[in-house]
């Protein structure tokens, strides 16, 4: 039988036997050799509650004879994102199967009242779930292969479940100040 070339990189016929040309073979990739960076939950994630407290309003000092209020005009809305263990980095944010989100926006439509001579401000407790993850590589044949140390992600709970607004009288800080309460 006569040998013929159909097109470069397609298939050749020689003595009645078909074979793939080197160009086609170069494009075929074994999926087991394809690794992509990934982040996965470490075990059950060892979840725990954390709270970020943030002052939303300016500090208002009531005069010595009258009470006062702090509200929307003196407040700012903040977006609170997830945080990770200091000095660490993750390949991608994951929820780990928990009811959390990448960020939460506080809003600013709240009012707190103070009495004569009081200092008053508005705070929000932003409820987070902290959980442990690991970076690694993933392929469709063998699954996830972890590498490096565990990393803790603290992500805001959906709808700020477990958190809320509160008034502080007397121990206000500066607008935007925050601290963690584990």
What labels would you give this structure?
3% helix, 182 residues, disordered N terminus, 3-stranded antiparallel sheet, elongated, mainly beta
Secondary-structure map:
Elements lengths: L3 E2 L5 E4 L2 E4 L1 H6 L8 E6 L6 E8 L4 E2 L6 E3 L8 E3 L1 E2 L18 E3 L6 E3 L4 E21 L3 E14 L7 E6 L8 E4 L1
Antiparallel strand pairs: 1-2, 2-3, 4-12, 5-12, 5-15, 6-12, 7-11, 8-10, 9-13, 12-13, 12-14
The total of helices stands at 1
Distance between the termini: 80 Å
Which structural class fits the helix and strand makeup? mainly beta
Oligomer: single chain
Task: Give the SSE order as H and E letters.
Answer: EEEHEEEEEEEEEEEE
Radius of gyration: 29 Å
Quantity of strands, as a count: 15
Question: Please, could you describe this protein's structure?
Answer:
The chain has one helix at residues 22-27; strands at residues 4-5, 11-14, 17-20, 36-41, 48-55, 60-61, 68-70, 79-81, 83-84, 103-105, 112-114, 119-139, 143-156, 164-169, 178-181. With 182 residues, the chain is mainly beta. A hairpin with a 3-residue loop joins β12 (119-139) and β13 (143-156). The longest helix has 6 residues, at 22-27. The chain starts with a strand and ends with a strand. Mean pLDDT is 86; it is low at 1-19.
Outline of this structure?
The chain has 182 residues and is mainly beta.
